[in-house]
Every structure is written in C-alpha cells, then in structure tokens.
Amino acid sequence: QVQLVESGGGLVQAGGSLRLSCVASGFAFSSYAMGWYRRAPGKERELVARIIINGSTLYADSVKGRFTISRDRTKNTVYLQMNSLKSEDTAVYHCYAHVLQRDYWGQGTQVTVSS
Q1: 3-class SS string, 24-60
Q2: How far apart are CA 98 and CA 104, in angstroms?
Q3: DSSP line for 76-88
Q4: Which of 8, 51, 53, 67 could share a disulfide with 63, CB 3.0–4.6 Å?
C-alpha cells in the first residue's frame, strides 16, 4: 500500500533553514505528482509546493523564492528545502501523493519557527 513518511521538522529561529524529507513506497514514485501541504493552528490546509511527473513545480505565493521542492528517484524521496523561515511558516507539514486519482498523506512533521 502507499506509504509516505516525513522527517526533518523541528524548532528553528526566524531566518533559519530546515529540510523536510518524505520517503515514499507502494507506488511507482516517478509516475505521480507529489508535494507538501501545511496546516497551521486555526487555519485552513494550504498547498505549499508540488512537483509533477516532468519535474515542473508549483509554489504558494507565500513561499516563492524561499522554499524549493525536489525529488530523488533513486531514493523515492521528495524534499522541501525551506530557507529564510518566518514565524508564519509554523505548521504541521504533510507530504502527499496523487496516485491513481486518490490523494495519500503522510502523518505530518511539525515545523516551529520562533521569532
């Protein structure tokens, strides 16, 4: 079955960096879109970044120029490099995969940015 396991969250000061990782299994990694969502307390879930089959990427306006999504096919892993972090980036970050017209989610990893 599809499994997505995130890691890399933590506590960081404003202006710092973190890299999130999502290891995928149970499907043909290179054949489907993957990405990251986040949910902050009291807010709606927000798409942060997405990468599709041909490598094209999409970012939320709030993270453009600061976050970079990438994938390593040899490791079945999607990364989210987050630089210049702000307090408003504090949220639980979830990896997702869109496989055969279904969305799958990881358990999430907490990112806390202190100001």
Answers
A1: EECCCHHHCEEEEEEECCCCCCEEEEEECCCCCEEEC
A2: 6
A3: TEEEEEE-S--GG
A4: 67
Task: Give the tokens for residue 66.
Answer: 């600061």
**Per-residue tokens: 99:** 């496989």
CA dihedral 69, 51, 99, 108 (to 10 degrees): 20
Residue 31: its pLDDT value, please? 85
Walking along the chain (115 residues) 10 residues at a time, the average pLDDT comes out as 96 98 90 94 95 94 98 95 97 95 95 96
pLDDT for res 75: 95
Residues paired with 50 in a beta bridge: 35, 58
Q: What is the pLDDT of residue 83?
A: 98
Tokens at residue 15, please?
């202006």
Q: What is the pLDDT of residue 50?
A: 97
Query: Which position has the token pair 């902050």?
Result: 40
